[in-house]
């Protein structure tokens, strides 16, 4: 069984050209479509064979198993799937509880039990999941080692698929022998070598060894025809002696691996190991230069990709103008102007039955209507991807702006609220004062001006004035208790209602 | 396959932060799906002084299916079958409770806790559970006798120290499905 892979992961839309069908289903956000993709066999990426229907039965390279990848440095725990405990591949988030998993892991858990694998909340496979876009970038940047055997290439995860599928010599590809369904490293997959999965007796120890593993057998376990290395006392198969001395023997004098950056140290290999580990002072420079070189490599790779994209664009443009030209000629001869109104990017859907369309494809750059269709699909997909990105950016900008604005408004509202509160307090206090003075006026007999009444009452019995002072100070003491001013602004009782009961000012 | 990495990480987690009195090792180096755990009887329990062997088996479907934990050493406990299988009743591991995101470290902690605090309301051995509830002194005596008889000396995982003759010490009780 081929390991589950993640076809969409890090495959730049513009470069590789997988069968458009498979890719389209993988990009759909619904998890059930992911399920369909995982189950299907058309997940491998066939470079440059868009219309090649015959090669779809088996992927062109062994799909990358993202869960088995080795990362250059420790990956942050927050990027680890809680199920497989490796950095997410095609992360997916549960909507009700916000937990993130690899699509593959979640799908498998969901098949066992349709609940969240962390908090066991019931989850509906079609509604309750969305893509986890936020961490996608972080995952793309993780530096990862190429999974091919014998390959030391390290790159950001985003670019791994390109290296693995197009350039890596160690990538497992289908055995050139059609009757064999095993995989073999790309550099060994030549028709003249044939199937290397057949067993053959080792010429030194006569053990049965698979042809592809012969080199490894010599290195590791071969016991025949060995000799002791004169320098280091290790048993080595005779015909590997040369490579042992050059590459492995700890006694061979070699120079420091940073020698091209200025280190002049030369010593037996075992001393050099210690020297390099110390570490060598030229290491920092060497690392820097290496990084620069790597950057340059990436840049050139990107540039190559750009130029292919541009080439394709130019081709389609040429094709478009050619088609327009042809149409114009046709139109002028037929005197049928309606044809011109068809937009250029709408492909003629009646491909096989329309002789005119077929002729135009055959004369143009595309070999068959299917090719043309697929190319168009691909172009539209790229455009859609761009649009989606733009929308996301706009979305983010929008919500930022909204947040900023509402924050300011909220502040202003809070300020107004507190001001209203203060005003309310003042109003109550003033009302109370007025009410009390009026009450006193009435008590004195309602003669004279309120001022006079006030004066006379203060000069009157000590009990009354004491009560007044107490009442006022009571109100004052109570006023600050009333927070926010909501009570005053909305519920303040009309003055007339409490007019008769001046001694009992409205309390809170 | 994919679970291999997860198991490796779980194993590292468990060995690096082993719960009190536990030591963990692979049953054999080529198979990460079977672990041997040695557990010292917790000091605060009647099992103190004993050394118990636990076998943790991870099914091929792990972590989508729960691991299976059994006692390789006989133990007198309401939640462990009193036979040479040593099945444990642990809520965490029941199929309807298992969560693929659960960590094995938590499982081991739970087993240790089960020795400190037996759960007589969810028993595998209802006779022992009854005894635990009604006559604690008798239960303690029996449990200690088992420790003396089976859980002293070197822990064996091959089932030789859980021989079928063990019935004499406590008698096999009526079993309930837990
Ligand atoms: Zn959840
Ligand atoms: Zn996962
Ligand atoms: Zn490679
Ligand atoms: Zn072959
Ligand atoms: Zn040999
Ligand atoms: Zn040597
Ligand atoms: Zn050096």
Automatic annotation (TrEMBL), chain A:
<feature type="zinc finger region" description="TRAF-type">
    <location>
        <begin position="217"/>
        <end position="272"/>
    </location>
</feature>
<protein>
    <submittedName>
        <fullName>Uncharacterized protein</fullName>
    </submittedName>
</protein>
<dbReference type="InterPro" id="IPR001293">
    <property type="entry name" value="Znf_TRAF"/>
</dbReference>
<feature type="domain" description="TRAF-type">
    <location>
        <begin position="162"/>
        <end position="215"/>
    </location>
</feature>
<feature type="compositionally biased region" description="Low complexity">
    <location>
        <begin position="11"/>
        <end position="20"/>
    </location>
</feature>
<dbReference type="Pfam" id="PF13923">
    <property type="entry name" value="zf-C3HC4_2"/>
</dbReference>
<feature type="compositionally biased region" description="Basic and acidic residues">
    <location>
        <begin position="496"/>
        <end position="508"/>
    </location>
</feature>
<feature type="compositionally biased region" description="Low complexity">
    <location>
        <begin position="456"/>
        <end position="471"/>
    </location>
</feature>
<feature type="zinc finger region" description="TRAF-type">
    <location>
        <begin position="162"/>
        <end position="215"/>
    </location>
</feature>
<feature type="region of interest" description="Disordered">
    <location>
        <begin position="313"/>
        <end position="349"/>
    </location>
</feature>
<dbReference type="Pfam" id="PF02176">
    <property type="entry name" value="zf-TRAF"/>
</dbReference>
<keyword id="KW-0862">Zinc</keyword>
<feature type="domain" description="RING-type">
    <location>
        <begin position="81"/>
        <end position="120"/>
    </location>
</feature>
<keyword id="KW-0863">Zinc-finger</keyword>
<feature type="region of interest" description="Disordered">
    <location>
        <begin position="1"/>
        <end position="28"/>
    </location>
</feature>
<dbReference type="InterPro" id="IPR013083">
    <property type="entry name" value="Znf_RING/FYVE/PHD"/>
</dbReference>
<dbReference type="GO" id="GO:0008270">
    <property type="term" value="F:zinc ion binding"/>
</dbReference>
<dbReference type="InterPro" id="IPR001841">
    <property type="entry name" value="Znf_RING"/>
</dbReference>
<feature type="region of interest" description="Disordered">
    <location>
        <begin position="456"/>
        <end position="508"/>
    </location>
</feature>
<feature type="compositionally biased region" description="Basic and acidic residues">
    <location>
        <begin position="313"/>
        <end position="324"/>
    </location>
</feature>
<feature type="domain" description="TRAF-type">
    <location>
        <begin position="217"/>
        <end position="272"/>
    </location>
</feature>
<keyword id="KW-0479">Metal-binding</keyword>
UniProtKB/TrEMBL annotation, chain B:
<keyword id="KW-0808">Transferase</keyword>
<dbReference type="GO" id="GO:0005524">
    <property type="term" value="F:ATP binding"/>
</dbReference>
<protein>
    <recommendedName>
        <fullName>E2 ubiquitin-conjugating enzyme</fullName>
        <ecNumber>2.3.2.23</ecNumber>
    </recommendedName>
</protein>
<dbReference type="GO" id="GO:0061631">
    <property type="term" value="F:ubiquitin conjugating enzyme activity"/>
</dbReference>
<dbReference type="InterPro" id="IPR016135">
    <property type="entry name" value="UBQ-conjugating_enzyme/RWD"/>
</dbReference>
<keyword id="KW-0833">Ubl conjugation pathway</keyword>
<dbReference type="InterPro" id="IPR000608">
    <property type="entry name" value="UBC"/>
</dbReference>
<keyword id="KW-0067">ATP-binding</keyword>
<keyword id="KW-0547">Nucleotide-binding</keyword>
<feature type="domain" description="UBC core">
    <location>
        <begin position="2"/>
        <end position="152"/>
    </location>
</feature>
<dbReference type="Pfam" id="PF00179">
    <property type="entry name" value="UQ_con"/>
</dbReference>
């Amino acid at each position: 069984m081929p390991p589950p892979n993640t076809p969409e992961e890090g495959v730049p839309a513009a470069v590789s050209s997988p069968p458009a069908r498979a890719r389209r289903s993988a990009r759909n956000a619904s998890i059930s479509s992911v399920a369909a993709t995982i189950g299907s066999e058309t997940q491998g990426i066939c470079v440059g064979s868009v219309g090649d229907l015959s090669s779809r039965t088996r992927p062109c390279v062994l799909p990358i198993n993202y869960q088995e990848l080795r990362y250059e440095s420790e990956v942050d725990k927050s990027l680890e799937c809680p199920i497989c405990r490796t950095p997410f591949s095609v992360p997916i988030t549960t909507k009700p509880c916000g937990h993130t998993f690899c699509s593959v892991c979640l799908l498998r858990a969901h098949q066992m039990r349709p609940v969240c694998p962390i908090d066991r909340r019931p989850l509906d496979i079609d509604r309750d999941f969305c893509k986890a876009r936020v961490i996608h970038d972080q995952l793309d940047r993780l530096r990862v080692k190429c999974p091919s055997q014998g390959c030391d290439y390290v790159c950001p995860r985003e670019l791994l698929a390109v290296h693995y599928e197009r350039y890596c010599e160690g990538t497992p590809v289908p055995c050139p022998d059609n009757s064999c369904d095993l995989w073999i490293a790309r550099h060994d997959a030549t028709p003249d070598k044939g199937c290397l999965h057949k067993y053959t007796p080792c010429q030194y120890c006569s053990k049965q060894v698979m042809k592809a593993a012969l080199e490894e057998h010599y290195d590791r376990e071969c016991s025949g025809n060995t000799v002791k290395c004169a320098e280091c006392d290790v048993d080595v198969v005779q015909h590997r002696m040369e490579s042992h001395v050059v590459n492995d023997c700890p006694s061979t004098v070699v120079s420091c691996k940073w020698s091209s950056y200025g280190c002049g140290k030369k010593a037996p290999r075992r001393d050099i190991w210690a020297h390099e580990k110390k570490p060598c002072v030229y290491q920092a420079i060497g690392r820097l230069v290496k990084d620069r070189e790597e950057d340059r490599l990436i840049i050139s790779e990107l540039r190559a990709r750009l130029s292919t994209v541009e080439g394709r664009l130019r081709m389609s443009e040429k094709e478009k103008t050619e088609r327009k030209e042809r149409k114009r000629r046709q139109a002028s001869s037929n005197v049928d102007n309606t044809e011109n109104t068809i937009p250029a990017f709408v492909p003629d859907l009646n491909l096989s039955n329309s002789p005119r369309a077929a002729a135009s494809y055959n004369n143009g750059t595309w070999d068959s209507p299917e090719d043309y269709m697929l190319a168009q699909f691909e172009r539209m997909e790229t455009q859609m991807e761009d649009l989606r990105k733009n929308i996301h950016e706009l979305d983010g900008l929008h919500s930022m702006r909204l947040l900023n604005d509402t924050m300011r408004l909220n502040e202003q509202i809070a300020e107004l609220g507190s001001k209203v509160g203060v005003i309310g307090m003042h109003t109550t206090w003033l009302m109370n004062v007025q009410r009390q003075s009026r009450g006193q006026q009435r008590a004195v007999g309602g003669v004279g001006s309120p001022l006079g009444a006030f004066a006379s009452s203060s000069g009157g019995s000590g009990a009354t004035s004491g009560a007044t002072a107490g009442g006022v100070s009571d109100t004052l003491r109570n006023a600050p208790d009333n927070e926010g001013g909501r009570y005053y602004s909305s519920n303040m009782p009309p003055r007339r209602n409490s007019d008769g009961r001046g001694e009992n000012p409205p309390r809170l | 396959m994919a679970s291999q990495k997860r198991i490796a990480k779980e194993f590292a987690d468990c060995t690096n932060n082993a719960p009190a009195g536990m030591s963990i090792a692979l049953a054999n180096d080529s198979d990460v799906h079977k672990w041997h755990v040695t557990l010292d009887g917790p000091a605060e329990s009647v099992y103190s002084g004993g050394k118990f062997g636990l076998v943790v088996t991870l099914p091929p479907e792990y972590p989508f299916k729960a691991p299976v934990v059994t006692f390789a050493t006989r133990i007198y406990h309401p939640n462990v079958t009193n036979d040479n299988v040593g099945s444990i009743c642990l809520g965490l591991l029941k199929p309807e409770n298992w969560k693929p995101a659960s960590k094995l470290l938590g499982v081991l902690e739970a087993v240790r806790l089960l020795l400190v605090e037996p759960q007589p309301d969810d028993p595998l051995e209802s006779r022992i559970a009854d005894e635990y509830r009604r006559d604690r002194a008798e239960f303690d005596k029996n449990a200690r006798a088992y420790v003396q008889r089976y859980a002293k000396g070197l822990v064996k995982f091959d089932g030789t120290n859980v021989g079928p003759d063990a019935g004499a010490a406590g008698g096999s009780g009526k079993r309930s499905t837990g």
